[in-house]
Design a protein that fits this description.
By secondary structure, this protein is mainly β. The protein has 2 domains: 252 residues, Thrombin, subunit H; 94 residues, PDZ domain (Pdz3 Domain, Roll). 11% of the residues lie in helices and 39% in strands. The two termini are 32 Å apart.
Amino acid sequence: MNQNQNIPPEFQPKKKVHFNKVTGIRIGVILLCGLAGFGGSYLANNIGSSSGITINQQSGNSTSGSVIHDVSDIASKCGPSVVEITTESVSSGNSIFGQYIQQGAGSGVIFSEDGYIITNNHVIEGATSIVVTLASGDQYNAQLVGTDSQTDLAVIKIDANNLVPATIGDSDSLQVGDAAIAIGNPLGELGGTVTTGIISALDREITVENETMTLLQTDAAINPGNSGGGLFDGNGNLIGIVNAKESQTGIEGLGFAIPINGALDIIDELIENGSVTSRPALNVSLYDYSSGQSLGNSDMQDGVYIVQVVQGGAGDQAGLQQGDRIVQFDGEEVSTSAEVKAILREHQIGDRVEMVIDRDGETQTVTVTLGQQSS
């Protein structure tokens, strides 16, 4: 393989996805190049997280199997805990005008009285400014605290006190058919919208933009702008963070949310460290190549390629190079980055993993000592 001509471009996104993240409304404001842009249950327990924040957590699910006909009390309880998020980011795409400002919108859930807010990574990714609007209408500029693309979670912070944090529920106790209430900011301009449904499935494993996630499925209406908003149970306890829906086929009633039990440790790490540091990593960036997606002639084989190697990281120390195609990982044949990441999740930092790679048409075996995920 001619490495200079055939390696995939760095960070080129894979276009084919199994499911879509519920992306916010994106409005491009065109600017001339060089100009600046502007554009419960009654037994709630107080528990401490490793980040030092005291949160309310609800154990169990007392509404299992029940049908909720009137959600006005739930909406009144949970509404103040859900916020609107608007973002601006600078894009330097293919516009003839050069740089321009993109505006986006999503949702978030208040995690603590002093201003920590949970949302999705894809809501705030690349944002140069983040504005939070509370249910009261008050607006605050927000700072990014931490983000994790693998779980699609992020934490932001506003300078405010005496906020109304969500009461954390127990997503592990859910059953199919339990009531589910989504609150968010659909279309980026309908903040506080409440939709109802049920838990349609548990532990649904889907792939979203090369990331395999285990999510809750609900038929509560989910739309662009709901990203980062809350999914609540019949007692108004937070059980999930909305992040995806099936939208390519036009089928409705297929919404997904990140279970809150699995998210709490990630949220704590983001608050403490700004990133997830406990996860093993190759310290490389991967790209899935398919000849069916190529616009030109190429002698590249279909598969998962290394497009960037973090200097000094696990992959670099093992001798991995840009342009290597991963054939086997830990004894299993792989063809996508999602498969590599799924195997990685079964390991710990410091584990030695054998890889078979193809480099310029020659097969090599490399042993990698897994490192800490870089920021």
